[in-house]
C-alpha cells in the first residue's frame, strides 16, 4: 500500500479532537468542527508544493471519513455490547427474543420485541450522554434562563432518557415500554420524540443515524438469536457488573465477559441457512 494511503484512525481522531477542543476553549466557532479541522490542515500545509490539489482533497476526505466511521463504529459496537449485557442479565427477555426470531424467516423488521430491546438500550445507555457542542445563533430565553448569542450548548441526553416524569422506573431495563400496549409504544429514536434522542434531533441530528440503526439492530438480533450467553462460573445474571464509564461515549466500565454457546444447527454459522 502506498504510504500516502496508510493512516492511523486513532491518530487522526485524536488530532481532530485536540483541534476541536482547543477551538472550544478559545471561544471560536464550534458550529462546524469539520471545517475547523480542514482549515487547520490547510494552514499547516501552506507552503508545500501540494497544497490544495485534488490529491490532497481526496486524502482529507479519506481522513474525515475514517474519523466519522471510527466514531460511529465505536458507538454502534458499544450499544450492541450494552444490549447483550442487558439480555444476559435478563435471560427471560433473551429467551423470548430468540423464540421471536425463530418464527421469522425473511423479514427481520417483524421483530417487535428485538426492536423494543434496542430502543430500551438506547434509552438506558445512550451512546453519547451529552450531545456534541452546539452554538446559539441568537440570544433567547428558555424556561426562564437567558441564553446569550454565541453560547456553547450541550444537551444532556442521559438526563432526558432517565427522567422519571417521562420514564417510570428509569433505571430498570423494561423493553415492554415500547411494545404494543406499552406507554411508549409510538415513541421512536429518530429525533421526532424528544423523550429519547440518542442521535440528537432537528437539523443537527447525527448524520450516521441510519447507518447506526442498520448496524445495531441486525447485529444485536443475530448475536441474541444465534447464541445462548453464559456468564463465568458462579456468577448470577443479577450480579453482572453494569457500571458505566463516562466520556464522549457511554461505554461499559468493564468489558462484557460472557461465553457464546451455539443454539442453532452448525450450517447456520456457515452461511448456508
From TrEMBL:
SUPFAM superfamilies in alphabetical order: Cytochrome P450
Binding site for heme: 206
Annotated InterPro entries: Cyt_P450 (IPR001128), Cyt_P450_E_grp-I (IPR002401), Cyt_P450_sf (IPR036396)
GO MF, any single term: oxidoreductase activity, acting on paired donors, with incorporation or reduction of molecular oxygen
Known cofactor(s): heme
Keyword line: Heme, Iron, Metal-binding, Monooxygenase, NADP, Oxidoreductase
Annotated PANTHER family: CYTOCHROME P450 98A9, FLAVONOID 3'-MONOOXYGENASE
Family assignment from sequence similarity: Belongs to the cytochrome P450 family.
Name the UniProt record assigns to this protein: Flavonoid
Organism, as annotated: Musa troglodytarum (fe'i banana)
